[in-house]
Amino acid sequence: SDLASYINSVFAESYADGSAQEIAKKYGVQDSLLEQEPCEFKQSDSDSDVDYIKSQGKMIVGITEFEPMDYKDKDDKWIGFDADMARLVGEKLGVDVEFVVIDWDNKVMELDSKKIDVVWNGIADWTGRNYDNEGDDEKHRAGTTDQRQTEQCRD
Description:
By secondary structure, the chain is α/β, with parallel strands linked by helices. Helix content is 36%, strand content 12%. It is built from six helices and five strands. It is globular and about 40 Å long.
């Protein structure tokens, strides 16, 4: 999926310009943020998830409620490090971001059915395609924020 490449490029850009560090500090997770290597977005020639999301005008983000990553403020708005980073990606895509709480055990089914476009909490595979729950394939290994932040662009 080119969505993983796009998200990784936004992470790299936001690390380089300091905005990722600002967001991390806001939620007290700055010690978990790892340096991001430059990463160029590689658009898919066909079946582009980025083009699909742009055509829908919104990116539907599957999350689990876990402070300080994703939680609601007093006005019932989703906030947290992951929520803010997802909004940053949506802003760069030019789309709205909608958050949907998912049953973590059903994340792959949710992705495959296109009920959500991306899982944004503790998983390195942004699209869920070919997700290997055993983690044999490094590209699709379940991960923590640290692993997700260091996910590299791959061919």
